[in-house]
Amino acid sequence: MNSNGLEKILWSIALPGFGQLLNGKFLKGLLLIGLELSINIQTNLNELIILSFHGDISKIIGETNYQWIMFYPCIYMFAIYDAYKDARSGNSPYTFVPFVFGAYFGTIGVIFSSSLLGAVWTGLAGICLGTGIGFLIRKFVMMPTQDPND
Question: What average pLDDT does the segment 90-118 reach?
């Protein structure tokens, strides 16, 4: 991973859309920032994050707007992937796989969060688990096949 791609990933982790702005994709960046802010406001995400750090899980579960927060892992992971893809020179096959699996598992984490640690921690755990599984899948898919005649 080149430093330019890493920089865009880190800015996109900080706020979805920042990586796109740094890549000169202003309309896409502003759209992603707008989506992030809309979801953040509708779900009261900043309050949920604060409550998560305080460990008040029952209050988090009661205050979570699941209709909106289920969009967040997909927007978040897409913004990170897109900023990284646009920053890189050259295309490596299956680069998207870890990001897609992170989005899938993050959404599944949010779905089951009411019986676990709340949407923030369970969603983040899902994103981490899914991204790790995606990297493993990508590694195995890209393994060179050996010719049985060799």
Answer: 87
